[in-house]
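ingest -> validate -> predict -> emit
validate: passed (alphabet ok, no gaps, 423 aa)
predict: started
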Amino acid sequence: MNGTEAVTDALAKCADTFYAVPGFPVTEIATRLHADITINEKVALEYALGDSLSGRRSAVILKNVGLNACADPLVNATTQGLIAGVVIVAGDDPLAQGSQNTQDSRYYGELAQVPVLEPNHETTAAAVCAAFEASEQFSRVAMIRLTPQLLDNEVTDNYCEPVRGKGALASTDLTMRGRSEAAARRTTELFVWSQESPLNRLCGGIAAAGAEEGQSHVVTVYPPPAGICTVPAVREVGRPFLSDHRCVARMETVRKPETYHARGFFRTFCRDCPFRPLMTILAERQVSAICDIGCALLAVNPPYRIGHAGYALGSSIAVAARSTKVALIGDYALLHSGINALIDVYEKDLPLLTIVLKNDRMGMTGGQNAYDLTKYIGWAEPVYCPADDEQMLKDELVVPDTPRTLVVGGACPAGCSHETVEC
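emit:
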């Protein structure tokens, strides 16, 4: 059995859903798993996060350069949390055999504060199991880095016994700063996890990662296990990531994560916001929506509390399509990066109500003008509703069996600013 076959079998045992943007050297893995092909890697990861919120484990299969496209939800998922495990299977191409560069995916581990595992021929399936377990234990995405040197050669480990856990979303009482602080605390625990991982074999001499050979072997390449700091040299495929990071120490966090109650207030929509009637109707109907980053995210807070989760800009559509079936997104966010997901949802005919807040402004960053989205989404046959037409809103706010887009239009009052709600 070669590495490709072993990874495929382990993923089939560990995950419930699979998404992919094929590319060398992981195309065969995606094909063997009959992975759902998506319009881009960002949408693939967002679908996986939606599955996670619904309790389904998911794997996202992509090549190294494709990892760049999903960086936004990858980084934000660390602070927002998840429920069921999500693992990115990243195929690296150190010799540029089928890629435009030799990007090393492991560097995203440090950037996104996520565990990165790089199996060798003795730990191939076990590393897949461990990645899903780590994702759930630390409530963030985990990564597996694969290279042709491992995938094309024989491996001895193909045994995988999945153990399912459960992650958690960030507490609704944590501010955005508090969520980042809480995530940093869990990152310090990642170092302990790496140090104690039975997948590593630290016995002195030259250490190796992935397909390389050495007296010691490291599978949890980020964070690195503490013992590797004393080895004289490291062998690895690609750039010297492990060698450069082998003495990285965990950062101690002292500050208690900030909560809204400690701060004393929540932020909510402007006093004369035209979308308040919409929020009131959604709250009365106890709708659970995935909120996008922007003014839509304020729906997570009191007095409405209709937001179930919010990840990156333009992410609500794909996440909601695999979870709550209701997405709340601003017009700028839709054009920024949500439109790819909307195309994919319509192509797959997924049941989803996308509610677009159309104010022609970038409401979170100073009220800059946004493009008029009506020029660009006619193909979706959206329904347009004035924000002050409460009866039409009540009639149109129905979760469909097919994709449906409702554009709610309103003008932000001049000189407005977000209000605060005391805790």
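Residues 3-245 form a domain with the Rossmann fold fold (CATH 3.40.50.970).
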